[in-house]
């Protein structure tokens, strides 16, 4: 106890207490992602589905004797990651609200900006783990392909390729994180994310088919589409610019509004 | 240690907390009493920065909650025992708290033992906890960092009578060691035995404050509950003496001290079968003081004269 027994001092002696170090906050946030059944199974599902997609892909290309490269397997692994990593991003934020643990969290770290930063760094670390995992599975798939196929096998895996891998997963995770903060409700955030991710591209497609002017601006505002060059790991200067403008709309803007909301929201 | 000054919180046209001020001193237990929706929880939420104040100020040990480094080590908070992830185990909740605060893991076991949650219970998920177990876990969490200030919202809610007695002992001992305790309740009997100081709140305003004795004195003294073999004889004697009384279930409630009623009965040779201080004295006061703020009509109970609101 910080009060000397019997003393009636009306002030707290905080001279011996340090702020909670940021690394400890990140550590706790990472732990929260895996210490519930929901969180643990989500991680296991991500790994299992990625492996499953690669097995199917491998099976199909071997059966049909197609020629594929490392990139094709990487694109395959990206499909489940792109669907489920955002869910992880969403849940890391919204579970604090839907399960109302934010009340307890904020009573131990009242600075919400530090809390959000720790949570975000936690999700980035998860994205990094996902990259390593996705990469390992992709290498495994390509290795099996090399063993069973007589076709030419490619191992084009440079630092830029790795960087693109990471960027893609960070985008997925961050978009989920942003939508989570924006809505503070798991179901709503996931639904909105899926609309954004699966319905919106169709609308963009339709729009550019019907309207010429829309076709011209679409590459600059369609974040999903702008990520395709990254999946291919072949990005031109113009494509970087398109990634930037569309990313400002679909990632940075929701992140900013989301942060603003969490900093102000009354925790019920 | 806790200082609330002119605190007001407005939601649209609804004033949840209306210009309240009070102080909680080290070494004391302050009971925060009021009917549901009176503003107790809002006040406590403002204290720990979950809700911004519309006007006024709250400091703990001279600091705003936001400025206390590693606040769990100084201020133990339990606002809602059910505000925990249903999928985490009790032990995991305490582990997360201990890790955030930078405490050794042995502290988790100590706290589990303190609140009598055994090994098996601590490894169960919270969705399988009873409300009483959640309260125990919440109290363990609040005490985890060995704080000098405790802020507990309805901690006795869901505890069985033995649990309530245990909590009383725990908080009393904690205050005796110099800690500051603020606990809220909507049930008077939960706090009247341990609170050194009571704050009665109704519709966002503090309607009365003081120790139990002071509150009763302000209410015009404690009443007496008396039963006699012959009630008519007794009521006749009370009327002669000019004492006001009301018939209650199986006796008479007199606005006088038991000694006066006993003396009167002895003078008139009235056989009494029961004579005691009306235990509902404070309860009545509580209901009366907050009468216009109650959801249920308790106007049947007349307001005591001279009660200073």
UniProtKB/TrEMBL annotation, chain B:
Q: Which SUPFAM superfamilies match?
A: P-loop containing nucleoside triphosphate hydrolases
The record's section on Pfam families has: ABC_tran
Q: Key word DNA damage present in the record? A: no
Keywords attached to this Swiss-Prot or TrEMBL record, sorted alphabetically, are: ATP-binding, Nucleotide-binding, Transport
UniProt superkingdom: Bacteria
Record PANTHER family: ABC TRANSPORTER, ATP-BINDING PROTEIN
Instruction: Report the protein name in the record.
Output: ATP-binding cassette domain-containing protein
Q: Which organism is it from?
A: Nocardioides islandensis
Upper classification of the source organism reads: Bacteria, Bacillati, Actinomycetota, Actinomycetes, Propionibacteriales
């Amino acid at each position: 106890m910080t009060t000397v027994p019997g003393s009636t001092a009306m002030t707290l002696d905080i001279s011996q207490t340090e702020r909670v170090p940021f690394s400890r906050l990140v550590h706790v946030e990472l732990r929260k992602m895996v210490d519930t059944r929901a969180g643990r199974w989500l991680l296991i599902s991500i790994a299992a589905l990625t492996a499953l997609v690669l097995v199917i892909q491998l099976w199909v290309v071997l059966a049909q004797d197609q020629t594929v490269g490392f990139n094709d397997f990487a694109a395959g692994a990206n499909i489940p990651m792109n669907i489920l990593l955002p869910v992880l991003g969403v849940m890391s934020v919204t579970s604090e609200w839907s399960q109302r643990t934010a009340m307890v969290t904020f009573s131990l770290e009242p600075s919400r900006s530090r809390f959000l930063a720790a949570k975000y760094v936690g999700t980035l670390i998860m994205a990094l783990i996902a990259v390593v995992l996705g990469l390992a599975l992709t290498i495994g798939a390509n290795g099996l392909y090399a063993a069973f196929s007589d076709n030419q096998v490619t191992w084009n895996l440079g630092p830029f390729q790795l960087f693109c891998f990471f960027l893609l997963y960070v985008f997925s995770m961050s978009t989920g994180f942003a939508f989570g903060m924006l809505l503070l409700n798991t179901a709503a955030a996931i639904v909105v994310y899926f609309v954004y991710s699966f319905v919106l591209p169709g609308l963009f497609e339709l729009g550019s088919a019907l309207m010429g002017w829309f076709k011209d601006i679409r590459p600059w505002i369609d974040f999903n589409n702008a990520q395709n060059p990254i999946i291919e790991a072949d990005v031109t200067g113009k494509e970087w610019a398109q990634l930037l403008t569309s990313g400002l709309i679909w990632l940075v803007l929701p992140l900013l509004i989301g942060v603003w909301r969490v900093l102000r929201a009354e925790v019920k | 240690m806790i200082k609330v000054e002119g605190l007001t919180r407005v939601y649209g046209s609804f004033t949840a907390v209306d210009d309240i001020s009070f102080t909680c001193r080290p070494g004391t237990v302050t009971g925060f009493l009021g009917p549901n929706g009176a503003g107790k929880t809002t006040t406590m939420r403002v204290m720990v920065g979950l809700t911004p104040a519309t006007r006024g100020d709250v400091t703990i040990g001279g600091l705003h909650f936001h400025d206390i480094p590693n606040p769990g080590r100084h201020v133990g908070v339990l606002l809602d025992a059910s505000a925990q992830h249903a999928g985490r185990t009790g032990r995991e909740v305490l582990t997360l708290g201990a890790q955030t605060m930078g405490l050794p893991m042995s502290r988790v076991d100590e706290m589990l033992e303190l609140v009598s949650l055994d090994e098996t219970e601590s490894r169960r998920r919270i969705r399988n906890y009873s409300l009483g177990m959640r309260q125990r876990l919440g109290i363990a969490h609040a005490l985890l960092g060995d704080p000098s200030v405790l802020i507990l919202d309805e901690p006795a809610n869901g505890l069985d009578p033995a649990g309530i007695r245990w909590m009383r002992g725990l908080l009393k001992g904690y205050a005796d060691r110099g800690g500051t305790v603020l606990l809220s309740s909507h049930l008077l009997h939960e706090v009247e035995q341990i609170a050194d100081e009571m704050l009665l709140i109704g519709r966002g305003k503090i309607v009365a404050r003081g120790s139990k004795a002071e509150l009763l004195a302000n209410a015009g003294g404690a009443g007496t509950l008396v039963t006699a073999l012959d009630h008519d004889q007794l009521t006749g004697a009370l009327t002669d003496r000019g004492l006001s009384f009301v018939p209650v279930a199986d006796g008479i409630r007199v606005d006088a001290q038991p000694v006066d009623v006993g003396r009167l009965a002895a003078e008139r040779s009235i056989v009494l079968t029961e004579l005691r201080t009306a235990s509902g004295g404070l309860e009545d006061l509580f209901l009366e003081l907050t009468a216009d703020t109650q959801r249920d009509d308790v106007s049947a109970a007349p307001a005591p004269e001279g009660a200073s609101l």
